[in-house]
Amino acid sequence: MIISLALYFVVMLGIGLYAFKQSTSDVSGNMLGGRNLSPSVAALSAGASDMSGWLLMGLPGAMYLFGLSKVWIAIGLVLGAWANYFLVAPRLRVYTEKANDSITIPDYFANRFADNKNILRVISAIVIIVFFTLYTSSGVVAGGKLFENSFGMSYEVGLYVTTGVVVLYTLFGGFLAVSLTDFVQGCIMLIALLVVPIVTFTMLDHPVMETLANASYDLLLISPKASEVHSLNMLDWFAGGSTIAIISALAWGFGYFGQPHIIVRFMSVRSVKDIPAMRRIGMSWMTLSAIGAVLTGLFGAAFILENEMPINDKETIFLVLSELVFHPLIAGFLLAAILAAVMSTISSQLLVCSSSLTEDFYKIYLHREASQKELVFVGRISVALVAMFAIYLAYDRDSSILDLVSNAWAGFGAAFGPLVLFSLYWRRMNFAGALAGMLVGASTVLIWIYAPITINGASLSSVIYEIVPGFILSSIAIVLVSLMTNEPAKEITTLFDEVEQEL
């Protein structure tokens, strides 16, 4: 297994070195790959940066413990990704290039609404840095768990090894390195998510349906919570779930419209004409990967129940199956798939944070006349700083990968999702509406997660996923404030009309 992982690390660093020689001479090349990615690279890069360690650990873990009642999350994500490709991708590709060649999402907001005082740029950059640091820490946690469970290393060492390799190829190769490694990592992830459930299924002696229909938590976890020790029909899509719970799960799809590390891939594809091909490739990859993750959790539960060998952490079911069912050499490849998932997302998030710190803080407030070489250097320093803080947050060994992802996902979805959609489709939207929507969306999510408010003893977040009220209230704020304030300036509406004509 160690040989397979070592080979994987060498390949990733080699790609980083190749990218370093190709496209780090200016900010556009470093942050967007010169807007010249092929549809296949852009699509798999978007998918791999989206489906992080939670796809191979978080989602299979949820399926392992709760069965098909958690499949609504996967369904919501697939539908959301499909809508993102149709609604956001073509317009954002055209708009960001026409809006003064916007390189980052905050840059786009500032140019779209003629934000000469950089208020939108700064606030959106703060939202990105805060939520992405949390998001990045979820991937670091996944890497720590991988090395701890599979190689007997300490959890802390795993954090540093995982993050160290990512930082190296991100530092020097920039966006091109991240995209090319994402492409390779996406292929590895897909193969693993198809191989593991298929082989696990062939290893089962008893009928899967019968085993899963009578599952018991005390046979799934070594130390189950008292409230979880009961039988459950894992094939029941509605087990223990209300209509609101299903809506909450499906609402994950709304998050796609506001994820900077995903929609930035739409900005980097070489032409708007390549979007349909990118969509077909991306959705095929995502659908197969989601199905594989769901089946990994379900068949993994059946395997554990049949062999009566409970595990400590539900989010390590992919690791357990890889080591128990496969030859060590193949297991090493499968474990590399988890590293691929983790690294692809961490690298994308580090790059987006770096872009915001460089373009939206350093260049605006510290050195407006900075050279391209200086900005690239500052971007690399920013990558290292964000990575170190993410490691610090990941030191909490009990952190749940899925919980960390869900919080950050909701934050971006509510703060940026409505803003991106309205900015692309509503001519009447103005600066005041954009600012109100962003602030209302982000603050609603934070209040929903952290405010000491309960409903019948349950926290707001446990009643309904925070992205739902955040997305709705943000949309309302955008519409009301835009209508109550002055119409956008002529230069803004002219730009909007130019984009409409090109599309």
Automatic annotation (TrEMBL):
InterPro entries: Na/Glc_symporter_sf, Na/Pro_symporter, Na/solute_symporter, Na/solute_symporter_CS, Sodium:Solute_Symporter
Catalysed conversion reaction: L-proline(in) + Na(+)(in) = L-proline(out) + Na(+)(out)
GO cellular component, one term: plasma membrane
Record GO terms (molecular function): L-proline transmembrane transporter activity; proline:sodium symporter activity; sodium ion binding
Keywords tagged on the record: Amino-acid transport, Cell inner membrane, Cell membrane, Ion transport, Membrane, Sodium, Sodium transport, Symport, Transmembrane, Transmembrane helix, Transport
Keyword Ion transport: yes
Chain segments annotated as transmembrane: 62-88, 119-137, 157-180, 187-204, 237-257, 285-305, 325-354, 375-395, 407-426, 433-451, 463-483
Subcellular location: Cell inner membrane; Cell membrane
Membrane topology, record value: Multi-pass membrane protein
GO biological process: proline transport
NCBIfam families per UniProt: Na_Pro_sym, sss
UniProt similarity note: Belongs to the sodium:solute symporter (SSF) (TC 2.A.21) family.
Function: Catalyzes the sodium-dependent uptake of extracellular L-proline.
Protein name: Sodium/proline symporter
Species per Swiss-Prot/TrEMBL record: Pseudoalteromonas nigrifaciens
Lineage of the species this protein comes from: Bacteria, Pseudomonadati, Pseudomonadota, Gammaproteobacteria, Alteromonadales
